[in-house]
């Protein structure tokens, strides 16, 4: 399932999404004493990150992580971690805990199993998930071109998996569809006409292996809130 929220300008979307997410995080902390959020990298979320960072929230009780990360050093311009440190873990949000997806020297089985245990212990199920979407219909690092696509979408996959996209650079570590879709609050943040067309194509078809975002749009038990601006 999905709902579409359209905004005329990106900064209005950013403010509205930050308000909504702040309320959800606050409610989760009030209920459980802690909250977790997975955000996406890419070029779209910067303004949203900066708006959310200014919210007065009990950030010390909030864990921030990424829906996916590229296996690159934090000083690389391709690092989503760097993007989050520079734009979200600032201002009020500087007090949040960050759960790193790139831990250990290599992205091997041992690294993944340690990471999965730590995620299970500290942040799953995610209270809030913010997804982006690529023009090929990928979301997080659930890439249609990858050999791991079945594992990306399988309901019994581990929360964190290794993905090697064939049409995008870098080895990735990504939350699986199952782990992301287990969140009660899944958002898809996109902007521009091209993404609107991609969304229309995704909505019109069924095959999630072809466009992984479809898994979030069509699953009856997931209500994906789409935030789109011009
Ligand atoms: O690390 C990443 O690349 C992502 O998390 C990815 O899923 C991203 O959200 C989309 O590719 C959209 O990226 P843009 O916002 O740059 O279009």
Automatic annotation (TrEMBL):
Gene3D superfamilies found in the cross-reference section: 3.40.50.1360
Gene Ontology molecular functions: 6-phosphogluconolactonase activity
One example of a Gene Ontology biological process annotation: pentose-phosphate shunt
UniProt pathway: Carbohydrate degradation; pentose phosphate pathway; D-ribulose 5-phosphate from D-glucose 6-phosphate (oxidative stage): step 2/3
Domain Glucosamine/galactosamine-6-phosphate isomerase, residue spans: 13-218
Catalytic activity: 6-phospho-D-glucono-1,5-lactone + H2O = 6-phospho-D-gluconate + H(+)
Alphabetized InterPro entries for the sequence: 6-phosphogluconolactonase_DevB, 6PGL, Glc/Gal-6P_isomerase, NagB/RpiA_transferase-like
Keyword vocabulary terms for this entry: Hydrolase
Broad enzyme group: hydrolase
E.C. designation(s): 3.1.1.31
Function: Hydrolysis of 6-phosphogluconolactone to 6-phosphogluconate.
Family, per entry: Belongs to the glucosamine/galactosamine-6-phosphate isomerase family. 6-phosphogluconolactonase subfamily.
Name listed for the protein in its UniProt record: 6-phosphogluconolactonase
Lineage, top ranks: Bacteria, Pseudomonadati, Pseudomonadota, Gammaproteobacteria, Alteromonadales
Gene: pgl
């Amino acid at each position: 399932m999905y709902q579409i929220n359209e905004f005329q300008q990106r900064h209005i979307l950013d403010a509205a999404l930050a308000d909504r997410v702040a309320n959800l995080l606050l409610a989760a902390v009030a209920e459980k004493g802690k909250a977790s959020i997975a955000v996406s990298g890419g070029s779209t979320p910067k303004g949203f990150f900066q708006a959310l960072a200014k919210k007065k929230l009990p950030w010390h009780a909030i864990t921030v992580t990424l829906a996916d990360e590229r296996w690159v050093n934090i000083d690389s311009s391709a690092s989503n971690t760097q993007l989050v440190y520079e734009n979200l873990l600032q201002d009020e949000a500087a007090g949040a805990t960050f759960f790193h997806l790139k831990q250990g020297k290599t992205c091997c089985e041992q690294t993944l199993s340690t990471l999965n245990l730590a995620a299970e212990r500290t942040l799953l199920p995610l209270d809030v998930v913010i997804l982006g979407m690529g023009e090929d219909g990928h979301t997080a690092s659930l890439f249609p071109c990858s050999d791991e696509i079945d594992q990306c979408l399988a309901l019994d996959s581990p929360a964190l998996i290794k993905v090697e996209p064939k049409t995008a650079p870098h080895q990735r570590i990504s939350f699986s569809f199952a782990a992301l879709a287990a969140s009660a609050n899944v958002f898809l943040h996109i902007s521009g006409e091209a993404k609107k067309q991609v969304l229309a194509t995704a909505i019109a078809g069924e095959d999630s292996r072809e466009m992984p975002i479809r898994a979030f749009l069509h699953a009856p038990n997931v209500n994906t809130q789409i935030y789109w601006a011009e």
